[in-house]
Amino acid sequence: MIRMPAKRPPVPLSRERILDAALRIADGQGLGRLTMRRLGDALEVEAMAIYHHFPNGKEQLFDALTEYVTAIDVETPTDAPWRERIAAWCRASRAQLLDHPGVLSLVTTRPPRGAARQALDRQLEILADAGLADPAQALYSLRSYLLGSVSVDLQDPERPRGDDAFERGLAAMLGGIAGGRG
């Protein structure tokens, strides 16, 4: 008697599994190719099953992708200098965005929500605790530099990532927003 291998039970559909598959499609084929049908095919489910986790459809999925990629929480000692803590967040955010180029346009056009907003609020607290005159403007400037830098790095995929250029620019940004503060 020949025994057939037992069929594996399907992997349950979860929000995280959907987001991982959506990122693979967006990063590999571009955001324009990310459809609910294509996503369903990648997950081996009917596209309608995705709506259980994202009832408002593609727009809700896009918001979730933005949050998923930008909710960066970096473990740094709370007694570390503020520049060190902010720089660590900037580096981690940059790495995440470079790893997921397919969603950069979403990140630049959608306001941060949920965990992404909380991550930004933590950076704002660090800047406020540092005694900066305008911590909100400082965070806006840092985020603008970060997104612009990633965009430039992604323009030429053959060019090595500009780590040195990024670090020089980050140092200049941190020095500029510090305005003479430590």
From TrEMBL:
Q: Which InterPro entries match?
A: Homeodomain-like_sf, HTH-type_TetR-like_transc_reg, HTH_TetR, Repressor_TetR_C, Tet_transcr_reg_TetR-rel_C_sf
Q: Which PANTHER family match?
A: HTH-TYPE TRANSCRIPTIONAL REGULATOR RUTR, TRANSCRIPTIONAL REGULATORY PROTEIN
GO MF entries: DNA-binding transcription factor activity; transcription cis-regulatory region binding
Keyword list (alphabetical) reads: DNA-binding, Transcription, Transcription regulation
Domain annotation HTH tetR-type: ranges: 12-72
The membrane spanning regions, by residue number, are none
Q: What is this protein called?
A: TetR/AcrR family transcriptional regulator
| DNA-binding region(s) in UniProt | 35-54
- Which branch of life, at top level? Bacteria
Q: Which GO terms describe its biological process?
A: negative regulation of DNA-templated transcription
UniProt organism field? Bailinhaonella thermotolerans
Keyword DNA-binding in record: yes
Q: What is any Pfam family matched here?
A: TetR_C_1
